[in-house]
Structure to design on (177 residues):
């Protein structure tokens, strides 16, 4: 189901699509997720845990802040390579049509991204990064740029534009000299 949302959007699949792909009956899906909204909440919560684990792995690797940022960009690059959007970004594009009960989980997903990035930027500001605004403002800009670059690259097939965005984000933060 996650891959279907990442490729088609939340409004672009049905329980029949999931049942066919997974090889189970629709009734089994309805037993576990009585409504599509229940499934959506579970998906975004699961995806947030996946991201949290990936970020914890990056943190435990003892990388320099600029390398942590590069590893974060790789998360988006990997989604693009799989012809997928970030689940959070895909759901955000459909936010006006989602049930309101999905939005708090979606908000937590984005808050996790901003918080983690802000921590990396704060750490990097000691030696590597030159910040012109608060770490949180830079974090939101990085997140927005990557989400947008992923969306455009997937729609246009221009992966080079995504790569350029990632490089500009990384290089733009580095101190000169």
């Amino acid at each position: 189901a996650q891959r279907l949302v990442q490729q088609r959007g939340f409004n672009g699949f049905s329980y029949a699509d999931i049942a066919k792909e997974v090889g189970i009956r629709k009734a089994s899906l309805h037993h576990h997720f009585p409504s599509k909204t229940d499934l959506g909440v579970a998906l975004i919560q699961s995806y947030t845990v996946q991201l949290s684990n990936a970020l914890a792995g990056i943190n435990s690797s003892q990388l320099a802040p600029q390398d942590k940022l590069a590893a974060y960009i790789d998360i988006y690059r990997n989604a693009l390579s799989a012809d997928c959007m970030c689940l959070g970004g895909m759901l955000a594009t459909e936010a006006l049509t989602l049930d309101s009960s999905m939005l708090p989980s979606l908000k937590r997903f984005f808050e996790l991204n901003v918080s983690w990035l802000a921590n990396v930027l704060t750490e990097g500001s000691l030696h590597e990064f030159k910040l012109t605004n608060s770490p949180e403002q830079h974090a939101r800009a990085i997140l927005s740029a990557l989400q947008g670059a992923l969306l455009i690259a997937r729609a246009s097939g221009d992966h080079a534009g995504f790569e350029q965005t990632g490089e500009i984000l990384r290089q733009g933060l580095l101190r000169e000299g």
Remarks:
- The CA atoms of residues 41 and 104 lie 9 Å apart.
- Residues 48-173 form a domain with the Tetracycline Repressor; domain 2 fold (CATH 1.10.357.10).
- The chain has one domain: 48-173.
